[in-house]
Amino acid sequence: MAHIRTRETYGTRRLQTELAENGIIVGRDRLARLRKELRLRCKQKRKFRATTNPNHNLPVAPNLLNQTFAPTAPNQVWVADLTYVATQEGWLYLAGIKDVLYVRNCRLRHGRAHDKRADR
Q: Which domain of life is it from (predicted)?
């Protein structure tokens, strides 16, 4: 079912289009009524809200590289990033760490957000 497969994001217009592509012709009003009867509601996209405050008086780490990524040997320049990923089971985090010298070298850690066991 498209409603479940799309993680409850398809509204009546997209459902109508998908059904038509599969040979099922149904009007938008009828589809909306059926969705209401079955209590199928699509998830609304939330407005982006910044979670960091750039206006503070706390010390900021110096930019040692100044965007110059030109290492001459391994283990001179490492870069990292952390991102949170929303899943049906809750929030997960993904951390990437990379030695800039080796383009294909990439270490990944993943686990539940704030799970102490994720770094094992």
A: Bacteria
> Any idea which residue has 């405050």 for tokens?
53
Q: How many domains is the chain built from? A: 2
- Dihedral over alpha carbons 102, 103, 109, 110 (to 10 degrees): 180
Which of 4-18, 19-33, 43-57 has the largest mean confidence? 19-33
Per the domain annotation, does 92 fall within a domain? yes
Asked if residue 13 belongs to a domain, the reply is yes
Nearest alpha-carbon partner for 13 in 24, 36, 29: 29
Residue 22 lies in a domain: yes
User: Residue 32's domain spans which residues?
Assistant: 2-37
Count other C-beta atoms under 10 Å from residue 64's C-beta: 7
- pTM, whole model, 2 decimals? 0.40
Decide if pLDDT at 3 tops 80: no
Total residue length of the chain: 120
- For the range 61-70, what are the long-range contacts, defined as Cβ-Cβ under 8 Å and sequence gap of 24 or more? 69/100
